[in-house]
């Protein structure tokens, strides 16, 4: 298992302000926020599909997906509801490794993430390459349902609604298509450091 940016000791208090975006506050717990009821997805029923437009190009079962290279990363995360949690530890499959396993390069600049409950969110490919993963474990434990298990997208440098829970696929699209919250007035990109919470921000 590969590891990036592991723990380097407790951050000094003077360092924390530089890691908390404007309008955010530090959160010690991990609040649970969802657009709807929490689905309970059996491992036996879980699949992950990579699509180019409507065409599936690769599908994995849970066992097959977990056989892909697993990477551990430590990142700060930022929710649009104004909390920030520092030094969160995740394990999963990098989006780069998913594409490699499928034998393709990104065919378009745009991606829609899809979830088992019908949720979707748009993320530019440039924000997935080298930066994002499909997370399977949090803080050393399997990802529980409340936090998006068995698998969720993790795009830690954008507001956390972009890190779609209960993920079941990524779809390359020809244009930047709005997802669930983007259609309801959230920002199309969602950069915490620019406070891009809502359209027009």
Q: Would you tell me the overall average pLDDT?
A: 93
Helix content: under 10%
CATH topology: Sulfite Oxidase, Chain A, domain 2
Distance between the termini: 39 Å
Q: How many domains is the backbone divided into?
A: 1
CATH architecture, by name, is Alpha-Beta Complex
Unreliable stretches, pLDDT < 50, 5 or more residues? 5-13
**Quick one: CATH superfamily?**
Oxidoreductase, molybdopterin-binding domain
Total strands = 12
Class computed from helices, strands and strand pairing:
mainly beta
Percentage of residues in strands: 25-35%
CATH top level class name: Alpha Beta
Largest sheet properties: 7 strands, mixed
Annotation field: number of helices: 3
Order of helices and strands: EHEEEHEEHEEEEEE
Q: What overall geometry do the principal axes of the alpha carbons give?
A: globular
Rg (C-alpha, Å): 16 Å
How would you sum up this structure, described in words?
The protein has 201 residues and is mainly β. The chain has a single domain, classed as Sulfite Oxidase, Chain A, domain 2 (Alpha-Beta Complex), CATH 3.90.420. It has helices spanning 13-16, 62-66, 95-102, and strands at 2-4, 25-26, 47-52, 55-61, 71-78, 83-94, 110-115, 120-124, 133-138, 141-142, 152-154, 167-173. Strands 1, 2, 5, 6, 9, 10 and 11 form a seven-stranded mixed beta sheet that branches. The chain has a five-stranded mixed beta sheet with strand order 4-3-12-7-8. Strand 5 (71-78) and strand 6 (83-94) form a beta hairpin. The longest helix is centred in the middle third of the chain and has 8 residues, at 95-102. The relative contact order is 0.19.
């Amino acid at each position: 298992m590969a590891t990036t940016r592991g723990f380097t000791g407790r951050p000094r208090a003077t360092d924390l302000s530089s890691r908390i975006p404007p309008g955010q506050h530090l959160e010690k717990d991990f609040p649970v926020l969802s657009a709807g009821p929490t689905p309970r997805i059996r491992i036996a029923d879980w699949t992950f599909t990579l699509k180019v437009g409507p065409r599936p190009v690769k599908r994995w079962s849970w066992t097959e997906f977990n056989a892909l290279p697993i990477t551990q990363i430590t990142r700060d995360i930022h929710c649009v509801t104004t909390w920030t949690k520092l030094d969160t530890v995740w394990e999963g499959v990098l989006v780069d490794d998913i594409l490699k396993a499928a034998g393709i390069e990104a065919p378009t600049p745009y991606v829609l993430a899809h979830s088992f409950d019908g949720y979707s969110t748009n993320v530019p490919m440039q924000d997935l390459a080298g930066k994002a993963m499909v997370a399977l474990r949090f803080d050393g434990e399997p990802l529980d349902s409340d936090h998006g298990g068995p698998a969720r997208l993790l795009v830690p440098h954008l507001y956390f609604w972009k890190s779609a829970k209960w993920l079941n696929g990524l779809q390359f699209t020809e244009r930047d298509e709005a997802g669930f919250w983007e259609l309801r007035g959230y920002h199309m990109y969602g950069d915490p450091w620019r406070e891009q919470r809502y359209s027009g921000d």
